[in-house]
Amino acid sequence: WAAWAGVAPRTLSRRFVLETGLTFTVWRQRSLLLRSVEMLIERRPVTTVAFDLGYETVSSFIDLFREHFGTTPGRYLKRSSAPCP
Questions:
Q1: What distance in Å separates the CA atoms of residue 27 and residue 13, rounded to the nearest whole number?
Q2: Which of 2, 25, 36, 50 could disulfide-link 9, Cβ–Cβ 3.0 to 4.6 Å?
């Protein structure tokens, strides 16, 4: 991205933090997690979601998901698909 923008990688990294308040790594991770929620709502299997988003193992995806959302993808999906009272 730095080459495309015509700036040094370090400059891009600093600007990214200034503009978003997040490092590129954190922003990318959150972006992937949000996409994973969309995919799970579409009823895609957790294994498919993990590998489609580039995680090396399903467990690494589940661990990060749990760390961020406080529950596993399967439980998150069950909770989000429960009918409202």
A1: 12
A2: 2
Count of residues in the chain: 85
Q: What is the pLDDT of residues 5-21, one digit of tens each?
A: 899 999 999 999 999 99
Cβ pair 52, 39 in contact under 8 A: yes
CA gyration radius, the chain: 16
Evaluate whether 32 touches 43 at the Cβ level (below 8 Å).
Answer: no
Give the predicted TM-score (pTM) of the model.
0.78
Cα dihedral 37, 70, 51, 59 in deg (nearest 10): -160
d(CA 31, CA 34): 5
